[in-house]
Amino acid sequence: MQVDVTLNQITQGNCPSALGDMGVGYIENGIFVTDNSVARYYYELFHNSQGSQKGKREAILRDKLSGELNKNGWITSMEEYTSQGYIDIVATRQGEKRLIEVKVSSDSHTAAHALGQLLFYSHFHPGSSLWFAAPSHPDLTILSILDQYNISFIHIVELKGQDNDN
After folding, report:
1. Tens digits of per-residue pLDDT, 103-130?
2. Are 39 and 75 part of one and the same domain?
3. Same-domain check for residues 59 and 137
């Protein structure tokens, strides 16, 4: 079953009133699917403004890692859109491309989610190397599974006093 959605329904009034009644997508099997970029923009704006501590911390980690990559000669873009979701970081340097998924944890559930995301994203960037980044080291079993899929791990070092969800 498919249910049509207006912009007001996904943003709860956080969008310009002139756009509020605009048809922007639909819900099918519990998943919101946007029909246009305006819908996606306001949907993300609303959900980011509600921002969980986890989401805020992930954004801080992503920005920190992107900055470090830039310092080392990588050109980065963040939150690159694909039809399967947003790639946290796409980094390129001298013809090499890395797709990087940033998470706040490296537990098995989170690592499995990152692995699935990276495999989907690799469809849009064939030949790219895949990287999972987190502030904690995954256990050896998780590292072994990541290695089976040629996914490398980046440990993001957090400094004392850094804004996080302690």
Report:
1. 999 999 999 999 999 999 999 999 999 9
2. no
3. yes
166 lies in some domain: no
pTM summary value: 0.67
**Total Cβ atoms within 10 A of residue 60:** 19
Same domain? For 26 and 105 the reply is: no
Residue 160 lies in a domain: no
Q: Domain span at residue 36?
A: 2-50
Residue 124 DSSP code: T
Q: Is position 161 within any domain?
A: no
- Angle among Cα 19, 53, 67 to the nearest 5 degrees reads 90
Task: Note the pLDDT of residue 119.
Answer: 94
Q: What is the pLDDT of residue 50?
A: 47
Burial class for 106, CB neighbours closer than 10 Å (0-12, 13-18, 19+): buried
Same domain (yes/no): 71, 17 = no
Q: Considering only CA atoms, which of 102, 89, 97 is closest in space to residue 129?
A: 97
Q: How far is CA 61 from CA 17, 73, 94, 119, in A?
A: 34, 19, 25, 21
Residue 109 resides in a domain: yes
- Provide the mean pLDDT of the chain: 78
pLDDT in tens, 143-166: 999 999 999 999 998 654 444 433
